[in-house]
From TrEMBL:
<dbReference type="Pfam" id="PF00440">
    <property type="entry name" value="TetR_N"/>
</dbReference>
<keyword id="KW-0238">DNA-binding</keyword>
<dbReference type="InterPro" id="IPR009057">
    <property type="entry name" value="Homeodomain-like_sf"/>
</dbReference>
<protein>
    <submittedName>
        <fullName>Transcriptional regulator, TetR family</fullName>
    </submittedName>
</protein>
<feature type="DNA-binding region" description="H-T-H motif">
    <location>
        <begin position="30"/>
        <end position="49"/>
    </location>
</feature>
<feature type="domain" description="HTH tetR-type">
    <location>
        <begin position="7"/>
        <end position="67"/>
    </location>
</feature>
<dbReference type="GO" id="GO:0003677">
    <property type="term" value="F:DNA binding"/>
</dbReference>
<dbReference type="InterPro" id="IPR001647">
    <property type="entry name" value="HTH_TetR"/>
</dbReference>
Amino acid sequence: MARIGAEERKQDFIEATIKVIAEYGIADATTRRIAAAADSPLASLHYVFHTKDELFCAVYESLINMPQQSLQYVPTGATPAESIGEMLRQLVKWFTLHPERATTQFELFFWSLRNNPEMAARIYAVSIEATHQVADFGAP
């Protein structure tokens, strides 16, 4: 059997977690179910991600960057209001094209608000930073 590198295995677990949360909801996203979806031993999941919170945070961070990447197409010379309008249209389009990822992103954020406010603050900060990078309208 071929050995899978740690980074590739990490991505497998992130993708499996997205699918499991989208299908079963976060309450039923057990580590056993996630490992099975990744076609990996449970021990490997716990080796790569020491806690479920660590896994969920990695999933959210990977998801927050995806819709932000679609925002690079804001027209040059547009006013801030026009740019924000275009950004919102692109985000809605991304969420429509990727319902599994959007569902998982929202599930994780609302779960963290209820169960782990510190994690919610971290992922909110990641979201704000990503938005600031895209929405830099020439501010000093």
